[in-house]
Amino acid sequence: MRHLKLARAAWKEDMRRFKDEQRAARREGRMPETPGPPPTGFSLVPWLLMGLGSLSNVLKGETPNPWIGAVGLLAFNSLYVYVVFRAFDRKKREARSTRVALVVMGVLTTALALGYGGNWLLFFPLLGLATGATVRGPSLGRIGLLLAVFAGAVSGYRDGWNGINIAYATFLSTAVTAAILSLSEAVRELRAAREELARRAVEEERLRFSRDLHDLLGHTLSVIVVKSEAARRLAPRDMDAALSQITDIESVGRQALTEIREAVTGYREGSLSTELDRARSALTAAGIEPVVRRSGPPLTPQTEALLGWVVREAVTNAVRHSGAARCEITVAGAAERVRLTVSDDGRGTATVPAAPGVGGTGLKGLTERLATAGGSLSAGPSARGGFTVTAELPRDPQELTAAALATTASGPGVPATAPPAATATLAPPPRES
User: N or C, which terminus of the chain has less Cβ within 10 Å?
Assistant: First the structure.
């Protein structure tokens, strides 16, 4: 009884949720996506009406030993209800207790069929129905066929050629029930998987946009602040130089506005050359000598875009935190990989021990970007003093695409296979952005 109460409560909750979704869809003028409430044991209970003929025989006294028949009928119905209600839960369906109940139900069906025949033979199709609801997978066909042959043999022994009809009905009820319930379960699993993929795609896009926005605004606002301070210092003694800095602020602001608009629409692609030019301007305005070296063949747009983010973030950190007098930016392309190094001679010699991972929001985002593309990022104090950020990426655009696809398939923000070189070291606390 407790099992039936729990099943009925779950069924009512599913029906309530289904009706709410139907009403919401009608209000919005669209077709509801939910195909219907998930099936439960209640959808198989009405088939017990096939046993009404046996019940009529017991009540009319047409069955020898009616008390034995009544007990057998009650036991069969109880086992049937127990089995079919457990058939809609994977763990309960595969539990040993369910399989034992199904076997006992088969033994009882055989005994009643051999003892009484006639209407009692219809318990075999009901047994097939319970078997189809419970047994899934490749073994179903073999079990269903054996059950049908056995039902036909027993029925033929009791009722002659009518055993063929019982065998056919048993096989049909087993196969059709299993097919319908398996298809329904597969549809619901696919729908749940689709919803999960959509949710992950939204989360990944939100994460990508947050990284873009941080990198755009963090760098741009840092440049504006530095140039504003320079203009304030120059205004009392050199108005022309101060006006030049103000002009640069206006240019940077307009460019940032354009980039933000493009980032919102998802069409922006970074240019490494542009970022290097901006880096020179920002470092010069901050009183840091820029040294830029670039070698190797031209890079793909994807590689340039990723390295442009690294230049933007590293230079922003140098301008805001380093107190350096010199900053070197080196881009070196090799046969298989390209390396970008941004190093300064500032306060990167802090004695704070490095911890695994990248702590700053910007550096953390860069680590995720490069790891997704099969690259690596390391950041920390250099051996000769100062602070160094090093990024490596594969030159082959197919490797970039394959790495991105593998990461997307394994989930948002988590590379499918972490490259051996994909390491990152935490910058000292004063240097994080």
Answer: N
